[in-house]
Design a protein that fits this description.
Strand order of the largest sheet: 8-5-7-6-10-9
Helix content: 10-25%
Distance between the termini: 33 Å
Oligomer: single chain
Radius of gyration: 31 Å
Strand content: 25-35%
Structural class: alpha/beta
Number of helices: 7
Bound molecules: adenosine monophosphate, magnesium ion
Number of strands: 28
Length: about 425
């Protein structure tokens, strides 16, 4: 294990050429701005990350609770059922028992109601014959049967939710049940996306000669929004330094700025020079990843900037590999990366690659476990193949793989 401080030198990887994915991750994650907690009303907490554990305010259930409609009885009284008992009270849910139930007696009770003093069990109504003030209990019950004792789910002051956790509907419900109507969650970063390139036209237009529809301007913001974050799509920027700088200045007012295109080393690849001219400190510029390679990461104060490759599949994959886990950490939730599982390869990946490759693949369940079938992939612009994929199968750098080898795959949804 190497441990060294994240390079702070401007353009740290520029001269040194592309770096391995793990090195890029180390540099990136060392620069995650510390998440900031804020209290929000429970109704707005869904999809946010809980910042502090939450404890129960009182025992749950707060009283010995009936779990069936039926009769509250003493188990000893009905051991030799059938027996007849006197019904002393009717206790619907939400009502408090007013009478003690003695030996030889019972109370009619509804699911959710509090057990009256005396009885230790409930016989369900189907196993009784009621006649108003008398009831015939047809079968015995064990002590405690059909009763949830006070505190049996959680005790007062017991932790019901630990942090950090992404709040799901069932988590909100548990928060509601303990009266946590305001919860500490991490603030969610605001993002902006800028697609760059002279050749781009709006998806509603028919591209002229040499033009292409701006698919990244739709795909990338949706990847961001899937994480529950707001994402503004700024106007496209042409490949001109002054235009790029103006658009970047606008984007730097958000906390996360994601650009697509213009990050390679071509004459018209002006995104990196424009970012530097706007004071963005470069930390990563090229990574040994395919599809991908040119991928910029830098910061300006607390604002983080990603420059993703223009090729749509490259943009998609580099977002999933780098941006998504980064945003997860910014939201206080490192677990937000795609789920990684092991799958067997259906066909060999016979050619060694000098970069780690993320192959669009379909997944099948077989008796020996999941199997990944990599899709014939035309190029890093091949969106149609990407759209058919369930997963990205990972071929490590400089490694040929036989069929049936177990590989890591990232699950897409
Ligand atoms: P670049 O990264 O600017 O060199 O672009 C690489 C390739 O991706 C080129 O073929 C571009 O036309 C294409 N491309 C760049 N930006 C986009 C975009 N927003 N949507 C679709 N394709 C793009
Ligand atoms: Mg370009």
């Amino acid at each position: 294990m190497k441990s060294r401080p994240a390079p702070r030198r401007s353009g740290a990887t520029r001269g040194g050429g592309p770096i391995p994915i793990e090195d890029a991750e180390r540099i990136l994650f060392a620069r995650v701005p510390a998440p900031v907690a804020e209290r929000v009303p429970l109704g707005r907490a869904g999809g946010r990350v809980l910042a502090a554990e939450v404890k129960a305010d009182e025992d749950q259930p707060p009283f010995d609770r009936a779990m069936m409609d039926g009769y509250a009885v003493n188990s000893a009284d009905v051991a030799k059922a059938p027996v007849e008992l006197e019904v002393v009270e009717d206790i619907p849910a939400g009502h408090v028992p007013t009478r003690k139930v003695g030996r030889g007696q019972a109370a009619r009770i509804m699911t959710g109601a509090a057990l009256p003093p005396g009885p230790d069990a409930i016989q369900q109504v189907e196993k009784t014959e009621g006649t108003g003030h008398r009831v015939r209990i047809l079968a015995p019950v064990k002590a405690g049967q059909n009763v949830a004792p006070r505190g049996s789910e959680v005790r007062a002051r017991e932790v019901v939710l630990t942090a950090p956790r992404l709040l799901r509907p069932q988590d909100l419900a548990v928060l509601a049940s303990v009266g946590a109507t305001e919860v500490a969650t991490y603030r969610r970063p605001k993002c902006a996306v800028i697609a760059t390139g002279d050749e781009l036209v709006d998806p509603s237009e028919r591209p002229g000669p040499g033009q292409i529809r701006n698919s990244n301007g739709v795909g990338i913001p949706e990847q961001v929004r899937r994480l529950g974050l707001e994402c503004d799509v700024l106007a496209r920027a042409p490949d001109r330094l002054e235009d790029l700088r103006a658009r970047i200045r606008e984007g730097l007012s958000r906390e996360v700025l994601i650009l697509s295109g213009g990050v390679s080393a071509g004459d018209r690849d002006l995104v990196v020079p424009a970012l530097k001219a706007e004071g963005v400190d470069a930390a990563v510029h090229q990574v040994l990843i395919r599809p991908g390679r040119p991928i910029f990461f830098g910061t300006k104060g607390r604002v983080v900037v990603f420059g993703l490759p223009g090729n749509p599949v490259s943009a998609f994959v580099t977002f999933e590999v780098f941006v998504r886990p980064f945003l997860g950490r910014m939201m206080g939730y490192p677990g937000l990366g795609r789920r990684r599982i092991k799958a067997r390869l259906a066909a060999p990946l016979a050619k060694k690659m000098e970069r780690t490759v993320f192959w669009p693949a379909t997944l099948e369940m077989t008796e020996e476990g999941p199997m990944a079938r990599t899709l014939p992939w035309k190029s890093s612009a091949d969106l149609a193949t990407l759209a058919r994929a369930d997963a990205l199968a990972i071929q490590p750098q400089d490694t040929a793989l036989d069929a049936d080898t177990w590989v890591d795959v990232l699950l897409l949804d």
